[in-house]
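User: I'm writing a short methods note and want a consistent example. For FAD-dependent oxidoreductase, I'll paste the sequence; you return only the structure tokens, no commentary, since I'll be parsing the reply automatically.
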Amino acid sequence: MRSEEDTGSGRVPKVVVVGGGFAGFQAARSLARRMGDAVDIVLVSPTNYFLYLPLLPEVAAGILEPRRISVALADALPRCVRHAPGEVDELDLDAHRIGWLDPEGIHHETTWDRLVIAAGSVHKVLPVPGVTEYAQGFRGVPEALYLRDHLIRQVELAAVCDDPEERAARLTTVVVGGGYTGTEVTAQGFLFTKELAAGRGLAEVPQWVLVSRGELLSGLDPHLGRNADRVLRERGIDVRTHEQVEEATGGGVRLRSSGEHVPTRTLLWCVGVRPDPIIDDLGVEVDQGRIVTDTRLRVPGHPHVFACGDAAAVPDRARPGEYTAMTAQHAERQGRLAGRNVAASLGRGRGKAYKHRDLGFVVDLGGYDAAANPLGVKLTGGPAHVVARGYHLLAMPGNRVRTAVDWLMDALLPRQTAQLGLVRSPAVPLDSASPEVPQHGLGFPHAPGQASDPSSRATFPPRSGGSAEAASPEDSSPTGAR
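Assistant:
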């Protein structure tokens, strides 16, 4: 049964969710499950899938196919959620209006009664000379596919290279950043290139250099960092802690502390993330680029606006005076709570403040190595590996059987090493506001000049049975509880 607004118009309230990552996906699903057809939910996202980011290193390493960790929104969300493919380019909190560009460059816009900002994060690019020109990030499927092809190409070029110095550079990969992404992609990537090199008849073992400003996985349980450091070093990976890259060139990188030049053709930038740039011009209070919210995820001064995930600075009740970290666990939980609190603001149920309990973390180091601390229990090796994969299967909103089958095939068969060349380097620039989509004129961003063409503007259509436009902010009073 649909609810009605106090205006008596018969129009259901419209809720727009910005972002289809952990926070946005969970917010839309949580709200839809609570209110069903009593609310019109529009999710704006440049891709039509939810990306299970923790398994992205396994895509780059040829273990999983990209569609395994890309769960279609239409399959995983209730039917009352409508996906609007596009990138947000207008957001007026006072006028309750949002606009976005679809993949063909047509501008759409609509008004909203409630807004959930879950725009996520992009690469954090530091002012290091040469990084934007020569480094590659690792936040989306296009980057993972490009990296996989690039690693295969470098090994194959090394196999036919007569110059020992050039061969060594092609077989060397430098990863900057010792957090989750940098640690796991180094662990998985090394095993992948080692198998590649052996299969191409190379006697040399590829060299991977992991450069970390601090200890590996700093900020987490020291058990995880110590075991990750030990496993990587035992494999022969060159782990450089308390080190930074001073300059990147086409021939390699120069390290700051030692001044050493490391010849390489592959520089992977995993130093961290920053909130989506869309937040910069909203005129709200921010902390290090994140929207400051109260404990109920509401944006001060805008009672109909909620923020969650990497885009939000949510007070951490477990650590007074601090904000929650930018992790998938927080994003997922905050997304669910945002859906609940939006429903409460519309008269369905009661809102709650965000409070979390640390359930532990898992770090998959490739092969049968892993580190985990579920509920404080410290695990390594095989048991940790089982826990890590079990956790990922439970956390994924779909494709569990297909993912498990891929893991089984990887254990039984050699990895496929065809270089498809579908994603070229210009499509995955490091300094991109949308690392989840290839950057080219055929999709996002739109072709030049299209957005300014008045004929390319469109009003987002209402859900069947609704009015052509959402009500003005003055009309958006909460619905009665049913």
